[in-house]
Amino acid sequence: MSSAPPAPSPSPGLRRSLGVVDGAALAASSTAATTSIAIGMGTIASVVGLQAPALLLLAFLPVLGIALAYARLNRSEPNCGNGYTWVGRSLGPWPGFLTGWVTLVGSVVFCAYTSAIMGSVVLLFADKAGLRRLGGVALDPGSTAISTAVGLVILLALSALAVTGMRAATRFQFALLVFEYAVLLGFCGWALLTGDHAFSLSWFNPFEIPSGTAFAQGLVLAVFFFWGWDAAFSVTEETRSPGDSARGGLIALFAMLGLFLFASVAFQREMSLAELVRNGPQALPYLGEKLAAEPWATLPLVALMFSAVASVQATLIPTARGLLAMGRDRTMGPLWTRVHPRYGTPAVGTVVVTAVGALIAGCAVAIPRLSDMLLAAVNAIGLIVSLYYGLTALACAVRFRSARHRGPREALLAVGVPAASGLVLLGLGGYLGYSYLTMSDHFEPSPDNGWFMFALPAVIVLAGLAMAAVAKYVRRSPYFSTGHGTDAEALSLPMDRTAV
What we know:
This protein is mainly α. The chain has helices spanning 20-31, 33-48, 52-76, 83-90, 93-128, 144-163, 166-194, 212-226, 231-234, 242-270, 273-279, 283-291, 299-328, 347-363, 370-399, 408-438, 450-473, 479-482, and strands at 133-134, 137-138.
């Protein structure tokens, strides 16, 4: 009698090995407080002057509302695709796909320009060591091309670590965070105590910003400071309890608020507005040189390098998992669904994301000055972050709209706060986009050119709509007919049946 054929072995899946600390480390690394402070304080000062503390505090309010929406949605439907999945179910597959697409592209762009930051920091170390030329090439830390080439070598090493296991990657990020926060708190604390510029409450007054356009651009930049806390939700299928994802994200978010306010006040106590603007992405190393002699003056530079390294790796991880969710739904190709049988990670997707990030970094060489390239990238990402955060918050309000019948408190938390937060960010992005369109009369690749600043996010959105059409009409993904894809039954927790 012939025996029955053996059952096919199940395909390898993501491994549940992470806890609250891992989620918080991933979220904090992705937010990259030290990098945001280092490159962002000068950038935001060039837009709104000394009102950075005011905008950081204002930006936190809608971001907190969106974080609470993420936590509620994650309890209802834990999925590594998070916003892509939730918006698709609640608002429709087209805005859902667009949410996933702009999240992924924004993350890849972030990897590209942060690679240039890593390279720039390494070149600053080389300059301190007296190495200013190599093989006839000037090792200029302010050059986009040279900085990017060095940064891409580091990016390859980080990709390898992200592939070989989540546990090792998050522990590595935690160790980097401990060092960089110790350095950041030490130098900013010293600047706060010894700075020559008197503290002023006007720094917290947003009404002193000269124009509505400056306010909108500054607020988008401030929102960008906080971007990354949602990385904790991308590993919800690798976390022992989905609630740990929300706790990790919220812990990181409140910690970032404290660090950003502390650092912004400290920078303005130590540096004039002209100094902040002039030093741009080198503001933190400049602070170290002002406050200490060598070798201590180099510590902020080391902290900046560690932050850039951790944030790039922490961005590769959720990007590959977002593409995994889209691949399972057949809105993207099957390549993204391959999970390494030994490491339990989406290894192929991580490698491809790295390659695409390297390609975009190469294209950024068209903007020769590193500071200009950073400002252009930050503004473009700020607009698309406003878009996908806003859509996800609205998805929460729509999904839990029945909560309005369960009392004022539940109605406020489940519907009112997410809806208000989402509308604020969508309105902010729309106003800033209109401002960019009307501020220039010609196109050139410069962060001072409004058409260029609008073109970057516009191309990303249009490409997303084109890819959605491919997913619907070519791939015939069930996501566009059912609101979810083929992975719906794979979730470890049931959907909240109180959601409407």
